[in-house]
Design a protein that fits this description.
The protein has about 475 residues and is an alpha/beta fold. The protein has 14 helices and 11 strands. The structure holds pyridoxal-5'-phosphate.
């Protein structure tokens, strides 16, 4: 296939996409295939000779859609959403056609400059203070790793990047037990190690206990460790828990520690002023991550890291070899120096399309609706004697158990969840909370309606009656 056929096949793909999205409600949300089913349909070796696009496309239609879990399905209530708004899809098509490697200003002036402006738009949209600047990364995991490496280097006065970490006093990172596993992984990869990630106990609201943090830092100093940074949770993955941001940042500042706020999911909701209380005090943070690719509507991947003082991360990651010098342009922004990978995609384009095509008001009303509908569903389940709410709605996430009289709530909840996902009308996932197997409910798909959210109740009742 060559360029002369691009319009034909792109149009075919676009028509397929429109039809797919329009008819998603007719498909089971979670893929119903078994492990190995898809691989078994593919030949073992790559073809030696070119194949016909007609055949390739028909194999795609035959094999792929039923082999996928449909993240854009309006009744996808599992994990967290991963929204792809149509305007964002169009922007990605254009970015694909240009396919630039946006590592330097010189290799991608428009991508670099639009990225800078989008960071400012988002900072203001989230109500963050004007001193923040930032960078687009692929995922929150990468943003958090960048922050943890900066914590390490800052604590070691940047000796790690020259002579390595062996023989140094171990840096210590603090986080609550509600934080995401990406913090653990960052500590593994940064050479800090799981043992030097100190999980601080949480209070009745599942927020980090400030006194316990203070005590842990003091103990570590006494024991010869170097306290380096605190990762603060805003909207944790399990039940949506948040730390007391202002109080934790104050302690970290008093102790000279670097702070990173993980608001990967909840950050999108901060475009609505009425939800911002959960991160009060966030303007004191050194680094903040949120994923527009979760709830906002820019499809995967698109994670934004805000930085109060980018110089510290640039000193940690900003390697500039001779062949990447931009001659005569020492002052331009070269975003590769802000992140771990050198190569970067043109991710800012979809943010530009997204915010213009829906407006911040359009995006806010979606998020407000999701939160309101989830609260309505929670109230309906709470009123039903067969269900128990195990954690209340935090933004658009709550958890519950199936607790009919006389049954084993863990086993029954597990069974019901399995039936729900085999049934396919909706898709829910689970977590373990305070030792109990609980079902998570979160709404946030771009096109989901109140009826979609309320259908969860009907599906649960319908299937529970068969248990
Ligand atoms: C989803 C999530 C992450 C991980 O995000 P990726 O972009 O997939 O790396 C980290 N922290 C929280 C709180 C999350 O919700």
């Amino acid at each position: 296939m060559d360029n002369s056929e691009l319009t034909k096949w792109s149009n075919r793909a676009t028509e397929w996409s429109q039809e797919y999205l329009d008819t998603l409600r007719d498909r089971p949300v979670r893929s119903q295939v078994s492990p190995g089913d898809i691989a078994a349909q593919l030949p073992t070796h790559a073809p030696e000779q070119a194949e016909d696009m007609e055949l390739i496309f028909s194999d795609f239609e035959r094999i792929v859609p039923d082999g996928m879990t449909h993240w854009q399905h309006p009744r996808f209530f599992a994990y967290f959403p991963s929204n792809a708004s149509p305007a964002s899809m169009v922007a990605e098509q254009l970015a694909n056609a240009i396919s630039a490697q946006c590592m330097l200003w010189q290799t991608s002036p428009a991508a670099t400059e639009i990225e800078g402006v989008m960071i400012n738009w988002l900072r203001d949209a989230l109500g963050l203070a004007p001193h923040f600047t930032g960078v687009i990364q692929d995922s929150a995991t990468s943003s958090t790793l960048s922050a943890v490496l900066t914590m390490r280097e800052r604590a070691m006065d940047w000796r790690g990047i020259t002579s390595g970490t062996s023989g140094e006093k171990p840096p210590r990172i603090y986080a609550s037990a509600q934080t995401h596993s990406s913090i653990d992984k960052a500590c593994w990869v940064a050479g800090i190690g799981q043992d030097n990630l100190v999980k601080i106990p949480t209070d009745a609201n599942f927020s980090m206990q400030p006194d316990a943090l203070r005590a842990a830092i003091a103990q570590d100093r006494a024991d010869g460790f170097i306290p380096a940074g605190v990762v603060i949770c805003v909207g944790g993955t399990s039940i949506g828990a948040s730390d007391n941001v202002a109080e934790i940042i104050k302690i970290a500042r008093d102790e000279g520690l670097y702070t990173h706020v993980d608001a990967a999911w909840a950050g999108s909701a901060m475009i609505c002023p009425e939800f911002r209380a959960i991160w009060d005090g966030v303007d004191g943070a050194d680094s903040i991550v949120f994923n527009p690719h979760k709830w906002l509507g820019a499809q995967f991947d698109c994670s934004v890291q805000f930085l109060a003082d980018p110089a510290q991360q640039l000193r940690t990651l900003g390697l500039r070899p001779d062949y990447l010098q931009t001659l005569g342009q020492a002052e331009v922004t070269n975003y590769n120096e802000w992140t771990i990978p050198l190569g970067r995609r043109f991710r800012a384009l979809k943010l530009w399309f997204l915010m213009r095509a829906y407006g911040l008001e359009g995006l806010r009303s979606r998020i407000r609706n999701h939160v309101a509908w989830v609260q309505e569903l929670e109230a309906k389940l709470a009123a039903d004697p067969d269900f128990t709410i195990t954690t209340h709605s935090r933004l658009s996430l709550f958890t519950f158990q199936y607790t009919p009289k006389g049954g084993d709530a863990d086993a029954l909840s597990r069974q019901l969840l399995q039936m729900v996902n085999d049934d396919g009308r909706i898709y829910l996932t689970q977590t373990v909370h305070k030792g109990k197997f609980v079902i998570r409910m979160t709404a946030g798909q771009f096109d989901c309606t109140r009826e979609d959210v309320m259908s969860v109740y009907d599906v649960l009742k319908d299937l529970a009656a068969q248990l």
